[in-house]
Amino acid sequence: MPDRVVLAYSGGLDTSVAIPYLAEKMDAEVIAVAVDLGQGGENMETIQKRAIDCGAAESVVVDAKEEFAADFCVPALLANALYMDRYPLVSSLSRPLIVKHLVTAARQFGGTVVSHGCTGKGNDQVRFEAGLAALAPDLQVIAPARDFAWTRDKAIEYAEAKGLPIETSKKNPFSIDQNLWGRAVETGFLEDIWNGPTEEVYAYTSDPARPRDPDEVVISFARGVPVALDGRPLTPYAVIDELNRRAGAHGVGRIDMVEDRLVGIKSREVYEAPGAIALITAHMELESVTVERDLARFKRGVDQRWSELVYDGLWFSPLKDALDALIADAQKHVNGEIRMTLHGGRATVTGRRSDDSLYDFSLATYDTGDAFDQSLAKGFVQLFSLPAKIAAARDTRKD
Question: The Arginosuccinate synthase-like N-terminal domain covers which part of the protein (predicted)?
């Protein structure tokens, strides 16, 4: 029996060409695995059939939308995950889930090799292979674009020569990756960082400058997890999906940035993440009301490190597991509701309420009913500033 290669299959040009190429190059049968992460676009049955038409021995489609939302997007939300304080880990979150299902398929079909379509210049090769190293170190990994110097021009020529049932047009200049949590766009004229993105770049969001009435939404959280919109109980998937539409209609979540890739180069990326940005904004605001000061300060550093680990492909790592435990514990009191206005490219918090709130009106008010004992403040300030006062006196003596 020939070897079996399990291929992470998107249905696009590169991975479609990889099916007959890997079969010939390795004298192997190819098992195509497509994972539905809520990315929209083509029907998954069409993608499944295309893999067979391109020569796959088996074609598997996994509906992982709810799993992706609950087990990957929600943890990112609890960590307020923004790489470089801006990028909500759109592609980074999907890779470990895809890896999980690639390993499942390898075990099911007797695969000995796993393949992906990543190049040697990007982060995704690390994310796929670090995940595979953690979950199935016995599996060999082949990346045709990287390992066999497989360029887009070569892929188009090969597809046309083989008569593969795929679109080989060069009209679309962009490289696009999308899922429920957002959409990432790169290459083409965006590689010149002086060029501004045009409206054709965007698909999840409308022009924020277009006149429209504001949309007000109330998001309910339980232990940091979004559980309802406007009082309607929903699954995490349904919450994100609806906010993608509602926030996207107002142009919320457009990000144009030059980011530091793991491989050491800087890359210009344009992201759309309307639901993610709205939810992270709301979650951070509810934490500001319900999480004690020192824990909140410490968690901000934890959130940043968590984001870096996931961006770097270390979802399956001891440090991330430990940080997950701390983040989960910090969510015990993150319960309540946040009211937001979606308009003009912004998700603006306008109201907060929680039974676990640490905000005490009687302590915060400057009006009648103030319960804060200001007579204690003078001694506190003197003691708090004492170390700096002593150091300043020493420095003065030495001058």
Answer: 4-165
